[in-house]
């Protein structure tokens, strides 16, 4: 129900994004990934949003390419997987690539410099990337969650399509972002100290900022000044 309109939007050339947000231990990572270990052999009802969304995406791609063969419609998908930990960006598909820089370009928009992108053709390709990246993610035990995600992760798929019509070649691009945010927690209940305390402070700070930005975007959508948004982002 949630993933279907996101897939349809991306195939129509519109970017889509999904956040899993909430307190630590509330089920964000399970909702986004679920049980993915044996999915290559047999689908499980406990698989998460991400594998389900890509099952739908590749099914729709195959159907569209078949129905529009006269237009020579072809899709190309490239994926990346990053982690934001203590305000530093790491490539989860190449963990040696750390402290990556966020850049902005007139054509590309906002992007992460030197982040690896892998071309994918099937759900199996996606599952391999998810398994590889999830194993490199920062996890630790706290009093509130024995397997707490200590970082934010962003799995991105760039969906490109190309077709010919009336002797004109057309291109379309869209970006699908699936975000598993680190869980918020109170210091006095999590028992965080030392490195865990530093992590918790950065997690809570970033979640608070995200919430503020979303509130301002809602205000802008309702007609308030864009200058206010710029002040918040600065």
UniProtKB/TrEMBL annotation:
Coiled coil in keyword set: yes
Gene Ontology CC annotations of this record: microtubule
Domain of life of the organism encoding this protein: Eukaryota
Keyword ATP-binding recorded: yes
Binding site for ATP: 22-29
Domain Kinesin motor, chain residue ranges per copy: 1-234
One Pfam family here: Kinesin
GO molecular function, one term: cytoskeletal motor activity
This protein's UniProt keywords: ATP-binding, Coiled coil, Microtubule, Motor protein, Nucleotide-binding
PANTHER family, per the entry: KINESIN-LIKE PROTEIN KIN-12D (PTHR37739:SF8)
Family: Belongs to the TRAFAC class myosin-kinesin ATPase superfamily. Kinesin family. KIN-12 subfamily.
Protein's recorded name: Kinesin-like protein KIN-12D
